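Q: I'm building a small set of examples for a reading group on sequence design. Run inverse folding on the following structure and report the sequence directly after it, with nothing in between.
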């Protein structure tokens, strides 16, 4: 079963919203990026190692234009 480890969003809404999820699965790690809110487009990257997945999270956050990059971490309840 997949477990959401972290969730970041850029404190924007609708079309300007960006979400990045770090997910642990039974077989490795996933980084899911979404643009445009819950109905927006998504991309998923797959990794064997947590460090590689976290590097992708950082790259995805850096790829967002500065004016849209007010990142906040949403607390994940366990």
């Amino acid at each position: 079963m997949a477990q959401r480890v972290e969730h970041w969003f850029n404190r924007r809404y609708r079309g300007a919203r960006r979400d990045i999820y770090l997910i642990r699965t039974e077989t490795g790690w996933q980084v899911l990026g979404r643009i445009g809110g819950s109905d927006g487009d998504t991309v998923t990257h797959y990794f064997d190692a947590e460090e590689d997945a976290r590097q992708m999270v950082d790259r995805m956050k850096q790829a967002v234009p500065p004016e849209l990059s007010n990142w906040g971490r949403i607390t994940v309840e366990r």
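Strands lie at 3-9, 18-24, 29-35, 41-47, 72-74.
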